[in-house]
Amino acid sequence: MSILIRNAAAIMTGGAGSPDDPSRAAGPDIRIEGETIQAIGALVPIAGETVIDATDCVVYPAWVNTHHHLFQSLLKGDTAGLNASLTPWLAATPYRFRASFDEKRFRLAARIGMIELMRSGCTTVADHNYVYYPGMPFDSSAILFDEAEKLGLRFVLLRGGATKTRQLEAELPSALRPESIDSYIADIERLAATYHDASPRAMRRVVMAPTTVLYSISPAEMRQTAAVARRLGLRLHSHLSETVSYQDSAHAMHACSPVAFCGEHDWLGSDVWYAHLVKLDADEIAMLAQTRTGVAHCPQSNGRLGSGIAPIREMADAGVPVSIGVDGAASNEAADMISEVHMAWLAQRARRGMAAQAVYRGGSFEGGADAATVDEVVHWGTAGGANVLGLPEVGRIAVGFSADVAVYRLDDPRYFGLHDPAIGPVASGGRPSLAALFSAGMQVVRDDVIEGVDLQELRRESMSAVKAMLAEVG
């Protein structure tokens, strides 16, 4: 099947912006053949071809979200955790409600989160799912793969879990009890055999992702899980250095920095990426760059929890692979990729600006508006994400790449008056409507509608579920 996206006002490619990797294409047309982008340029329609009119629209690669907790889509704005920093928030919200998730609620939460992402133009979702415990009555992994397939999304399961708990979990229900290392590895092997596809544009992947390597597993188990993952051809992922507590814990327990600790236990490398990395020393950034260990930057969650602003500019300049993740909706009530990249663009500028000093105090610059460009943020959220996920034929508008394409209409007043329409989705934020969204060549959104999705019914189901969960936890 041939599809022609015709007469786009602008095309962002996801490239890094160098002469040999441009961030924009002149177009104005893109031809899709089957699952693949076949041509870009001034193209003539061919007989029988479906034509998408992209007049006045901007075209982006579909976003690649590299860190999420989809089950938290029913935990937005919990008052007990709304003004709490990371550690008290964990106890107040995700741990307090985790036992409330049965199969039906887990599936509903996953569906809400995936649809929210789709409506922002995202077609690749990496979910760090840690809803696993001994005797669990449903298969949360199977539900996630099933829901993604129904919506036509590329899904990467970051299989979380823990073999030990933090003290704050110790008195909570059985849904928080740890697994044994043997059962954890056995399930990873099962999932890899059932779902994992190593091809360069796979629609299903599995990743070894203990919830937080510093707290969730032992040092010996870190080496063991890394060895198993590499034997199976899986990548590795976890949380790291989200707040200063990681630094305190690593130094107290292991007399080194969190990144150095991970390096000593085989958890650095080009097949590894971490969520957050907000609190880093210069030598840690150098170590990440040297080993090509990546980051999933989650600026909205980091802001919501008051954790800080990750040094992404410094990491990118050093050569650390950068990607974007929305994190869980329990700490980010705007868990879509447009909101996330808008925040990423602003936050890096603000971080640099905070270092500015008056000239009489030795300062040499006024502000940080050069800390991140829109084109660069698009790169982080598309090709950058595909890179850390190990999907080399995903995340770009380029010939031969998977046809994951978002066609945005800039038809809201917030986009009126733009001198450069290409920057609209990132610089203006909001939610530009989708004329079309393609995932591996399949059109999954038409005229801003996801076929088969009743948003009002989804809203009613979510309200009912939240009401019941609040009643259960008291």
Automatic annotation (TrEMBL):
<dbReference type="InterPro" id="IPR032466">
    <property type="entry name" value="Metal_Hydrolase"/>
</dbReference>
<feature type="domain" description="Amidohydrolase-related">
    <location>
        <begin position="58"/>
        <end position="413"/>
    </location>
</feature>
<dbReference type="InterPro" id="IPR050287">
    <property type="entry name" value="MTA/SAH_deaminase"/>
</dbReference>
<comment type="similarity">
    <text>Belongs to the metallo-dependent hydrolases superfamily. ATZ/TRZ family.</text>
</comment>
<dbReference type="Pfam" id="PF01979">
    <property type="entry name" value="Amidohydro_1"/>
</dbReference>
<dbReference type="GO" id="GO:0016810">
    <property type="term" value="F:hydrolase activity, acting on carbon-nitrogen (but not peptide) bonds"/>
</dbReference>
<keyword id="KW-0378">Hydrolase</keyword>
<dbReference type="InterPro" id="IPR011059">
    <property type="entry name" value="Metal-dep_hydrolase_composite"/>
</dbReference>
<protein>
    <submittedName>
        <fullName>BOX element protein</fullName>
    </submittedName>
</protein>
<dbReference type="InterPro" id="IPR006680">
    <property type="entry name" value="Amidohydro-rel"/>
</dbReference>
